[in-house]
């Protein structure tokens, strides 16, 4: 088909090796004309999906299949309709069958912001595929997300009088995919039982699931959001023995986890809505919630204030240590801020150590014998009983469960590139726990790589140094030798300035 054709006769084909090869043959016969006609390609795809849907469901009582369009581009529109807003509007009007459009921005040339708006307006999402040696793995991971739809037109409904309707986050979802989850959050009325229905379209037709649970007062969702006085508001306490010395002490209750989850989901859905429809009311609501719950958004900012104070460093404490102790001190996070220590000069006989190479550093990291129990973020995310880890890698950043592979062999299952740019191999997570991933789940996601059968993988650097090798040390007389302390700056995900004060001595 071409952008000018009318593909009403294009039927769907089963994904058998024969038809896959035929599709590849058709692609091989295509030639690039030098232009990018995004509107024409999407028009053809949406029309083909709609025509195939009609042809498939004619003279049959089976439910209609879920139409999906996967759109991949590496650039901006250059021919045909080139205005982004016009393309989004025309594609949405043409997509009467509500086919989900999933966009893939390949490389740095594509406009990810435009593709995200396009997909959000058509019940999909956008992903960025980076130009790297693991681009094929990135595509496989994306396909795994959308290849197994379980339910379509999913709706959450609750019995009257149980929930505050105006507080609910989105209750309607286009699709539920295998391995993903759907979350609805809101405020409850004073009730002991929460009951409702989850309806959707499955492969055998319409399906309804009845849910019921006891309501437990885990968190007090702030009533101040609805113009009511709440315990979340600041209160004043008077203390002191003398009336003249009375001091006002302000207290502020920490907001609960469920309340912050509600605020996070509300802000995210408002931001998605704003990308499709620019309205001032949405922006005002996002700013209000972000400031109230301390979330950083495109409409708010994070201000880091460094205390204007200093503390003198005892130079006697800056003594050489063994390399492993200096690379990995006992304390990985310092909560108090300190200025950078001044240069320290050592004279006479000194111990000179060769600077380790990157592979040597990785080897020493592996020699630490780190395990999954060393992960600081395991609480709430690692299910030891079922050997499952929960990661925010699902659709639109939702949580998705992966198998830990505790009983799997330590073997390389594919090539990848580590965040440091080193050649690496995709292995099961328990067999390659690196110090870089200990601090937070975000640090692990930088090393994450997909494995078959839903296992959690890690892009493990290739080690060329055996366990018996060590950096060599030499000693000798040096006159007026100066050794500078070099300070490691491992990223710390926090809102206050954090400095590590363990020096590493190099020559």
Automatic annotation (TrEMBL):
Any one Pfam family match given in the protein's UniProt record, by short name: VWA
GO cellular component: protein-containing complex
Record-annotated VWFA domain positions: 20-146
Lineage: superkingdom: Eukaryota
PROSITE patterns named in the record: VWFA
Region spans: Disordered: 229-250
Gene3D superfamilies noted in UniProt: von Willebrand factor, type A domain
PANTHER family named among the record's database cross-references: INTER-ALPHA-TRYPSIN INHIBITOR HEAVY CHAIN FAMILY MEMBER, INTER-ALPHA-TRYPSIN INHIBITOR HEAVY CHAIN H4-LIKE PROTEIN
Record protein name field: VWFA domain-containing protein
């Amino acid at each position: 088909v071409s952008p000018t054709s009318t593909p009403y006769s294009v039927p769907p084909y089963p994904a058998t090796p024969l038809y896959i090869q035929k599709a590849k043959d058709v692609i091989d016969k295509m030639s690039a004309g030098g232009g990018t006609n995004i509107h024409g390609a999407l028009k053809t795809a949406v029309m083909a999906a709609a025509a195939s849907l009609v042809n498939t469901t004619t003279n049959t009582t089976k439910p209609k299949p879920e139409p999906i369009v996967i759109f991949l581009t590496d650039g901006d529109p250059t021919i045909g309709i080139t205005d982004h807003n016009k393309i989004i509007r025309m594609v949405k009007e043409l997509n009467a069958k509500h086919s989900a459009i999933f966009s893939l921005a390949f490389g740095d040339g594509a406009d990810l912001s435009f593709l995200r708006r396009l997909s959000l307006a058509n019940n999909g999402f956008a992903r960025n595929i980076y130009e790297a040696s693991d681009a094929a793995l990135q595509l496989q991971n994306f396909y795994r997300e959308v290849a197994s739809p379980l339910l379509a037109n999913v709706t959450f409904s609750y019995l009257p009088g149980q929930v505050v309707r105006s507080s609910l986050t989105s209750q309607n979802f286009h699709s539920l995919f295998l391995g993903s989850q759907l979350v609805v959050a809101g405020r409850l009325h004073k009730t002991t039982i929460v009951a409702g229905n989850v309806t959707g379209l499955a492969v055998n037709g319409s399906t309804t699931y009845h849910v019921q649970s006891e309501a437990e007062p885990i968190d007090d969702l702030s009533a101040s959001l609805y113009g009511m006085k709440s315990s979340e508001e600041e209160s004043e306490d008077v203390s002191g023995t003398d009336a003249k010395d009375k001091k006002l002490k302000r207290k502020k209750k920490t907001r609960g986890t469920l309340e912050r989850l509600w605020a996070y989901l509300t802000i995210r859905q408002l931001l998605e809505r704003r990308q499709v429809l620019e309205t001032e009311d949405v922006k005002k609501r996002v700013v209000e919630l972000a400031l109230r719950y301390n979330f950083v958004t495109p409409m708010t900012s994070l201000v880091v204030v460094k205390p204007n104070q200093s503390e003198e460093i005892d130079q006697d404490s800056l003594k050489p240590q063994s390399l492993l102790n200096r690379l990995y001190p006992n304390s990985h996070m310092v909560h108090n801020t300190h200025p950078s220590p001044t240069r320290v000069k050592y004279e006479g006989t000194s111990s000179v150590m060769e600077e380790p190479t990157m592979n040597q550093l990785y080897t020493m990291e592996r020699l630490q014998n780190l395990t999954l129990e060393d992960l600081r973020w395991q609480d709430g995310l690692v299910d030891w009983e079922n050997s499952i880890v929960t990661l925010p890698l699902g659709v639109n950043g939702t949580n998705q469960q992966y198998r830990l592979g505790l009983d799997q062999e330590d073997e390389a299952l594919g090539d990848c590139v580590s965040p440091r740019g080193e050649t690496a191999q995709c292995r099961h997570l328990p067999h390659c726990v690196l110090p870089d991933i200990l601090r937070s789940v975000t640090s692990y996601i930088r090393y994450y790589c997909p494995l078959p059968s839903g296992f959690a993988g890690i892009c493990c650097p290739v080690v060329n140094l055996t366990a018996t090798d060590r950096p060599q040390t030499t000693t000798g007389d040096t006159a007026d030798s100066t050794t500078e302390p070099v300070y490691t700056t491992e990223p710390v995900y926090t809102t206050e300035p954090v400095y590590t004060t363990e020096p590493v001595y190099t020559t």
